[in-house]
Design a protein that fits this description.
Largest sheet: 6 strands, mixed
Strand order of the largest sheet: 4-3-2-5-6-7
Radius of gyration: 16 Å
CATH topology: Rossmann fold
Number of domains: 1
Number of helices: 4
Strand content: 25-35%
CATH architecture: 3-Layer(aba) Sandwich
Helix content: 25-40%
Number of strands: 9
Length: 185
């Protein structure tokens, strides 16, 4: 176990900090302000996409000033690897979405295949409106749906392998306080 800790510490020490904790907090404040203005009377059902969405959900919920229901969904393509594979549904929601406004909170919009599949699932389950939010949007042209964007985005970053604020590197560093890029990736 010591070897992995040493390796992960080296990854952190060598990483480039792309967004400081202050940058992240300012982005979360702005996202919450936009959500408060748009969703205050919509009785939204808010889904945290596990595991990466834990950070954004935990940081945003106290900033939201309206009643909401919060649940989680767990779908992944990474399974602690550094590249995505097929979508793996671990936990689907056990709450009715029929005629509800649904807000999906996730850590990152990279290619967007996972987020698009979750949004499609919510539409198929009868949601009247499906909105998406990601703390980070990677700037590149490999989106699952050309031109794909979230309804609420905190930060736009360059196309590198990221960790921190919910995003992980091989299962580690979701707890890093800013957004970091792995050196060389």
């Amino acid at each position: 176990m010591t070897d992995i800790c040493t390796e992960m510490q080296q990854v952190f020490d060598d990483a480039d900090c792309l967004c400081s904790p202050a940058d992240v907090n300012a982005a979360l404040d702005r996202m919450a302000e936009e959500m408060n203005a748009a969703l205050s009377r919509s009785n939204p059902l808010v889904f945290c996409v596990m595991n990466g969405g834990v950070f954004i959900t935990g940081q945003l919920l106290p900033r939201l000033t309206f009643p909401l229901e919060q649940h989680y969904i767990h779908a992944t393509r990474y399974r602690q690897a550094t590249t995505g594979g097929l979508l793996d549904w671990k936990v689907k929601p056990d709450v009715s979405m029929k005629d509800r406004c649904v807000l999906i909170l996730d850590d990152i919009l990279d290619e967007g295949a996972t987020l698009a599949a979750i949004a499609d699932y919510c539409h198929a389950e009868g949601a009247s409106q499906v909105l998406t939010a990601a703390l980070v949007d990677k700037e590149h042209d490999r989106k699952a749906v050309p031109g794909m964007k979230c309804d609420y985005t905190g930060l736009y970053v360059e196309d590198r392998y990221l960790f921190g604020c919910g995003m992980d590197y091989k299962g580690y560093w979701r707890n890093a306080p800013g957004i970091y890029a792995v050196k060389g990736l």
